[in-house]
C-alpha cells in the first residue's frame, strides 16, 4: 500500500488496512499519511470527508498501542451505544445525570477583562498552534466508523484514566462544542485532541466563557488563573483551530 503524499481519493481509502479493534470488536482502518506539513495534513483530513462514510481523524503511529494499554485498565471500557446514551441524557439535561460543567467567572465579570487587547502567549499559556500531531514523522488517517467527530471518544473508550475526562464527559463536551461553535475533531493522540472550528467566538463574552470551559476540560492553561484565562480568551477570538491537551 502506498503512502499518501497528497489529498486522499476514493481509491486511496479503498486501500485502508486495519489499524486496531476496539474492545467492542469494532475495527478501525486507515492509511499512512506522511511527508506533509501541517497545512497539507489539515487539507487531507478535511478532503477525506467527501470520499468516505466514516469520520476521518489524524492519529500518530503510537496511538493504537496506547489505546490498547488503557483498555486493559479496570472500569474503562463501555459499549458505544451506552456511552452515547449516557451522553445524550446529560446533553438533554436529565436531572438524574451529572452534567460536566466546568468552573467559570460570574456573568457580571465577563465584560470586565480587556480580552481583545491582551497579547498572545503569556506565561503559563500553551499556545493554540495548529500542530496537527506536531512533528511526528509518521501519521495515519484513521477512518472512524461513526457519523460525527464528537462520537469518536465514545467509539474508542477514550479517557477515564489518570486525570482525563471519562469517555462520556468527552462525548458531552465535544457535542456541546460542535453544536455551539462547529468544532469538529480532526486529530488525536493519547494526550491531545485538535479541532477545526467553523464558528469561533467573535465577541469577548463568548471567548471568555469558552476559555473557562476549555480550561476545565483540559490542561491547555497550566495555572488556571483568571489572568491566564483572559489571555487564553484573547487567542480564542476568531481562532479556527483549537488544541486540548492532558498531562
Structural notes for this entry:
This protein has 247 residues and is of the alpha+beta class. The chain has one domain (10-245). 33% of the residues lie in helices and 17% in strands. It is built from eight helices and seven strands. The chain has helices at residues 10-14, 38-48, 63-71, 80-91, 152-156, 167-181, 204-217, 226-236; strands spanning 17-21, 27-33, 55-60, 139-144, 183-189, 192-197, 241-245. The chain has a seven-stranded mixed beta sheet with strand order 1-2-4-3-5-6-7, sandwiched between helices. Strand 5 (183-189) and strand 6 form a beta hairpin. The longest helix has 15 residues, at 167-181. The two termini are 35 Å apart. The model is unreliable at 1-5, 95-100, 102-112 and 118-129 (pLDDT under 50).
Give the biggest sheet: 7 strands, mixed
Structural class by sheet pairing and helices: alpha+beta
Beta content comes to 15-25%
As a whole number of angstroms, the C-alpha radius of gyration is 18 Å
Instruction: Give the proportion of residues in helices.
Output: 25-40%
What is the total tally of β strands? 7
SS field, number of helical segments: 8
Average pLDDT value? 80
The H-and-E topology, N to C, reads as: HEEHEHHEHHEEHHE
What is the overall shape?
Answer: globular
Q: Could you list the spans in which at least 5 consecutive residues all have pLDDT below 50?
A: 1-5, 95-100, 102-112, 118-129
Amino acid at each position: 500500500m502506498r503512502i499518501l503524499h497528497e489529498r486522499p481519493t476514493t481509491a486511496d481509502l479503498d486501500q485502508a488496512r486495519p489499524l486496531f479493534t476496539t474492545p467492542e470488536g469494532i475495527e478501525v482502518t486507515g492509511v499512512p499519511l506522511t511527508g506533509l506539513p501541517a497545512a497539507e495534513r489539515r487539507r487531507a483530513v478535511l478532503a477525506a470527508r467527501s470520499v468516505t462514510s466514516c469520520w476521518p481523524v489524524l492519529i500518530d503511529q503510537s496511538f493504537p498501542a496506547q489505546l490498547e494499554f488503557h483498555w486493559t485498565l479496570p472500569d474503562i471500557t463501555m459499549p458505544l451505544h451506552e456511552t452515547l446514551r449516557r451522553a445524550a441524557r446529560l446533553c438533554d439535561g436529565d436531572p438524574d445525570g451529572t452534567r460536566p460543567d466546568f468552573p467559570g467567572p460570574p456573568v457580571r465579570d465577563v465584560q470586565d477583562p480587556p480580552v481583545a487587547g491582551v497579547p498572545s502567549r503569556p506565561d503559563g499559556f500553551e499556545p493554540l498552534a495548529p500542530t496537527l500531531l506536531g512533528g511526528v514523522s509518521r501519521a495515519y488517517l484513521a477512518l472512524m466508523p461513526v457519523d460525527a467527530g464528537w462520537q469518536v471518544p465514545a467509539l474508542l473508550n477514550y479517557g477515564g484514566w489518570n486525570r482525563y475526562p471519562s469517555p462520556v464527559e468527552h462525548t458531552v463536551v465535544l457535542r456541546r462544542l460542535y453544536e455551539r461553535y462547529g468544532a469538529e475533531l480532526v486529530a488525536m493522540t493519547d494526550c491531545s485532541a485538535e479541532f477545526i472550528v467553523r464558528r469561533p467566538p467573535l465577541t469577548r463574552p463568548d471567548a471568555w466563557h469558552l476559555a473557562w470551559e476549555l480550561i476545565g476540560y483540559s490542561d491547555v492553561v497550566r495555572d488556571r488563573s483568571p489572568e491566564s484565562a483572559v489571555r487564553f480568551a484573547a487567542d480564542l477570538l476568531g481562532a479556527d483551530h483549537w488544541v486540548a491537551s492532558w498531562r
